[in-house]
Amino acid sequence: MTVFALCDRCHGGDAGMMGCASAGWIWVWFAMIVLLVTVVAGVVVWSVSNRRSPQGGDARRILDERFARGEIDEEEYRRRRAELR
Predict the structure, then answer these.
(1) pTM of the complete model
(2) What is the rounded distance in angstroms from the CA atom of residue 80 to the CA atom of residue 34?
């Protein structure tokens, strides 16, 4: 069934002032809804995946910084580093 046949069925043979172009708007709305759902799903997946950080990555970085600044000695650094593994 073509769009023209759909117009003839819906409008009783009279497609009105716009011709058969009005039947094409159904597909535009459908495409917009599909696009919106896809974008929302993409944003959700992206935000969830960005929340996860490598396990212990931040803690190791902070520990390395504290050791570099001299806040902790080597023994404490090694002990805490082993606990993070």
Answers:
(1) 0.42
(2) 50
| Element at 82 (helix H, strand E) | helix 74-84
Q: Which residue has the tokens 């799903």?
A: 41
pLDDT digits (tens, 9 = 90+) for 60-78: 889 999 999 999 999 999 9
6-30 pLDDT, tens digit each: 555 555 555 555 555 566 788 888 9
Q: What does the DSSP assignment read for 5-69?
A: HHHHHHTTT---TTTTHHHHHHHHHHHHHHHHHHHHHHHHHHHHHHH---TTHHHHHHHHHHHHH
Q: Which of 18, 28, 22 is nearest to 6 (CA)?
A: 22
